[in-house]
Each structure stands twice: as structure tokens, then as C-alpha cells.
Amino acid sequence: MIDYCHTFLLDASGVLYNENGVIPQAVATVRRMQARGAVFVVTNNSCHSPAVISAALAHDGYQLPADHIFSSGYGLSEDPDIAASLRGKTVFFVGYEDSKVYMQSTGYAGFASLAQADVIVISSSIGAAAEEMVVRVKAALVHRPRPVICCNPDHYVRGLGQDLIPVAGYYAAQIEAAGFPVHWIGKPLENYSQMIARRLKARGVNLDAGVCFFDDNPVNVMNMQMHLGISGCWIRETGIGFAFDPTLIHTTYRADVLDL
Predict the structure, then answer these.
(1) 34 burial class (0-12, 13-18, 19+ CB within 10 angstroms)?
(2) C-alpha–C-alpha distance, residues 193 and 214, integer Å
(3) pLDDT digits over 50-62, tens only?
(4) b/e map of 171-205 (b: 16 or more CB within 10 Å)?
(5) Phi, psi (rounded to 5 degrees) for 3
(6) What residues contact 32, with CB distance under 8 A and at least 6 apart?
(7) What is the DSSP secondary-structure string of 188-209?
(8) What local confidence, expressed as pLDDT, does residue 191 receive?
């Protein structure tokens, strides 16, 4: 596949690294890709800024600059509908300090307490406090409904062995399941694919079969191919691929049907 591609789109967790560290041979493979064309990281990691992600990847041996890292967090400012809901509004932000970088171009009015905020934004799972956050947010929405935005639809990443570690989308989905609508941005949704298309076209990249996307979630791969008309490769062994039922993958593009 590498030999006929001119542009490479790589997921991060489960493709470049996992909880065991850097994926064996992945650094050498990325260097081969960079010898042929441009390489971009396309990730639902909205927990960290592109600068921090780039530095962490450099520690693993990857040379991927921050401006080649396209986080779903950018959708807060680049998706027209989501950006409109944030402009001029106060925000209760669920995430780490570093992830607030994605709020910078939204035109939001400032951060506020859960009781006072106009909008709730979920960018990361905030570790052990995540379950408590879900309870607090649901209670606040009963008292006063308002928009909830999540910029990471992933429910899990792969931990050690075949453990699945819940991340932001898992907790935001609990809020949605309680009857409170959530506005999503990220893979496998088309709004994220279109954000990637705009960013690639701005760099002069033609969207064709020579653009190859690598991800450990087959739904992400199928949807990106369908949305953009590009090639895709499912990385099965090093991420969450083991959790998918192969008999369902050919019949649906919907991550919820696969219970992930």
C-alpha cells in the first residue's frame, strides 16, 4: 500500500503506540511513508494539544510536527454548527489545561462553573473523576438544559493486553443515554472527515486513492473512505481491532452497532 500512496493519514493510539509503548517497526514504517509523501496524524485525542502530542511522538522516535497533527478538538472552532453554539457563550470545560488550546479560536466568552455556564464541552475523560463528572452534568442538565459538546467520540482505547480503557466518548455517551443531546465532532463522523478534507485541500493535497488512512477502528476506516473517496487500512493487531466482530464490519458503518 505504501508504494502507491502520496499522502498518509495515521491514527495515533493503536497505530503509532499503545499502552505498551511504541508499536514495533512503526517508526521505520512512518519514515518510509515520509520518504514518499506527507504524513499527518488524524486523531480523536483532544486531551492534549498538538504541540504536546508532537513532543510525545518525538520521544518515541517519530518526527511529526504539530502542524501535521489534526485533532478532533479543532472541530470546536472549525465545525460551523458547533462553533456557532460556542460563540459568545460561557463554557464549563471538562478536560485538562493543555486541551483548552482548542477553545482559543471559538469566540467563547470565557469559562464558568457548571451551574453558570451556557455550554458544556467535554474534551477528555479526566481520569478517576470522570464518573462523578457524569453525575454532576446530568443533574445540572435536569435543572437547566443547555448544549453539550464532545470532541472525542471514542469510547475506548486499548490498555495493557486486551483491556479497554474508557475515554471521553464513553462518558459523554452516558449523558446522551440519559436523554440529553450531545453534539459530537470526531471520527467516524462526517463532520470530522470534512474538516480533514478542508485542511488537506488547503495544503494542496488531492483527495483520491493515493491518500491512505490507517486506523485501528474499522468503522473509522470505512467512514473516512466513504466520506472522502480515499484508501484505507485497518490495523487489527495493536489497537482495539480485537474487540470488533468481523461479521458486522461489512454490514454497518455505525460504531454503536459494534458496541464501541
Answers:
(1) middle
(2) 14
(3) 999 999 999 999 9
(4) bbbbbeeeebebbbbbbbbebbbebbbebbeeeeb
(5) -65, -25
(6) 2
(7) TSHHHHHHHHHHHHHTT---ST
(8) 97
C-alpha cell at 115: 451551574
pTM of structure:
0.91
Find the length of the chain.
260
Torsion of CA 52, 57, 58, 62, to 10 degrees: -150
Are β-strands 21-22 and 17-18 bridged in parallel, bridged antiparallel, or unpaired? antiparallel
Domains of the chain: 2-73+188-249 (3.40.50.1000), 77-184 (3.40.50.1000)
Average of per-residue pLDDT across 23-48 = 96
**Model pLDDT for residues 139-161, shown as the tens digit of each residue:** 999 999 999 999 999 999 998 88
Please report, rounded to a whole number, the percentage of residues in the chain having pLDDT higher than 90: 84
Structure-block grid coordinates of residue 39: 504524513
Report the 10 Å Cβ neighbour count for 159: 14
The secondary structure element, H or E, covering residue 91 is strand 90-94
